Amino acid sequence: MNLQSTITLNNGVEMPRFGLGVYKVESGNEVEHAVKEALNVGYTHIDTAAFYDNEKGVGRMIKEANKEIFVTTKVWNDDQGYDATLRAFEKSQKNLGVDVIDLYLIHWPVKGKFVDTWKAMEKLYEEGQVRAIGVSNFLERELDELAQHSSTIPAVNQVEYHPWLQQHSLYDYCKHQGIQLEAWSPLTRGRKLDDETLLEIAKKHNKSAAQIILRWNVQKDVITIPKSVTPERIKENANIFDFELDADDMVTLATLDEGLRFGSHPKKFSE
C-alpha cells in the first residue's frame, strides 16, 4: 500500500485511498498552493465542493499538473432538486475545467429533496458525465430511502469519521451494501491530537498523533482526505505508508470511541 493505492468502488472505478481535502481553503493562491504541493508530493486525489467556492483553483492546478487526478465535488443544499442539481453540476464542471468529474456527491441529506437530487445524479452517471456518484453525511435511514426509490447504490458515503466517532452501525451497513466509506475531518479538526493514548501509540511508532489517526483510517479501509494548507503538514499526512499499526494498537484505538462529533449532525438536514 502506498500514497497512490486505490480501492475499487462498487461500479469498478478505482478511487485513491488517500487525498487532500480543501474545505475552508480560500479560493485563489491558498487553494492553488495547497493542491500544487499535494500533487508534487504524490497525491492523486483532491476533494472539493461547490460550497467551498474553490473549484476553479482546484481545476487550474489539475490542468497545470497534466496528469491523472481523481476529483470529487459535491452539490450543495441550496442546489438540490432534479433540475437545480443538473444546473449545479454544469457549473462545477465548468469551474473545474473537466469534461468528466470522477465522483459527484450529495453534500447533505436535505429532507424532501435528496431523492430528486439522486435521480438527477443518476442521469449524469448514465450519460457518462461522472464516473461515480455517491452521498455525504447520510445515515442508514437516508440510505434506505434512496434504495426504495433507486436501483443505483451509492458508490461512496463521505462522513465524519475518526477514532472518537467510529459509527459502527453505519460502517457495517455500508460494508454490507457495498458502499465505500470515506472520512472527512479525520483529524478531529485538531481537537484530539493531544490525547494521551494516541500520543503513546505515536511514540511507539516514532510518528505524529495525526499520522496514527490517518493510518488507523487507512487500515480500516476508509478513504481519507485530511485538509491542510501547510506544505510540511501535507507531506507529513501522506507519510503513513511506511509503518503499520499492530493488532494491539487497533484494539486500543477502538476503545476511544465516544460518538463525538466536531461537525454538524446529519439529522439537522434530514428532519
From TrEMBL:
The active site is at Y52 (proton donor). Substrate binds at H107. The keyword Transcription does not apply. The record marks K74 as: Lowers pKa of active site Tyr. It comes from the Bacteria. One of its GO terms (molecular function) is oxidoreductase activity, acting on the CH-OH group of donors, NAD or NADP as acceptor. Keywords: NADP, Oxidoreductase. Residues 28-256 form the NADP-dependent oxidoreductase domain. Belongs to the aldo/keto reductase family. This is Aldo/keto reductase.
